[in-house]
């Protein structure tokens, strides 16, 4: 499937300070989300997500705060590592049990 002549954008990362500034521009009402996105060569979707997350962080909207999201990601990584450790221990137990017979 062709992308209709558009090249995919390279993945960029932005500082929390930059995101906060753009969110403030949108929330002040000086410019719309679409105008902010256009002015800074961003996608409207990204800016909307940043605004939505900022609203969650200050309690204006339901959802996971940024801190809770970070904690959840860390717990998921730890859970995955622990599952791998358990898998290795199961294999080692099976290996040594077979060797002692």
Description:
By secondary structure, the protein is mainly alpha-helical. It has two domains: 13-63, Arc Repressor Mutant, subunit A (Orthogonal Bundle); 65-101. Helices cover 67% and strands 0% of the residues. The longest helix has 34 residues, at 66-99. It is elongated and about 75 Å long.
Would you tell me the structural class of the helices and strands?
Answer: mainly alpha
In round numbers, the mean pLDDT is: 92
Helix count equals 4
Distance between the termini: 58 Å
Order of helices and strands: HHHH
The CATH superfamily of the largest domain is identified as: Winged helix-like DNA-binding domain superfamily/Winged helix DNA-binding domain
Low-confidence blocks of residues: none
Work out the strand percent: under 5%
Query: What is the CATH architecture annotation of the largest domain?
Result: Orthogonal Bundle
Tell me the domain tally. Answer: 2
Q: For the record, what CATH class of the largest domain applies?
A: Mainly Alpha
CATH fold node name of the largest domain: Arc Repressor Mutant, subunit A
Number of DSSP strand runs: 0
Backbone CA Rg: 23 Å
Give the overall shape: elongated
**Percent in helix:** 55-70%
């Amino acid at each position: 499937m062709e992308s209709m002549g558009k090249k995919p954008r390279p993945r960029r990362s932005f500082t929390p300070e930059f995101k906060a500034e753009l969110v403030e521009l949108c929330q002040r009402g000086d410019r719309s989300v679409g105008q902010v996105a256009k002015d800074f060569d961003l996608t409207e979707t990204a800016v909307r997500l940043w605004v939505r997350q900022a609203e969650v962080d200050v309690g204006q909207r339901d959802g996971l705060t940024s801190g809770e999201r970070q904690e959840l990601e860390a717990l998921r990584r730890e859970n995955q590592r622990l599952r791998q450790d358990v898998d290795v221990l199961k294999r080692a137990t099976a290996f040594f049990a077979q060797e002692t017979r």
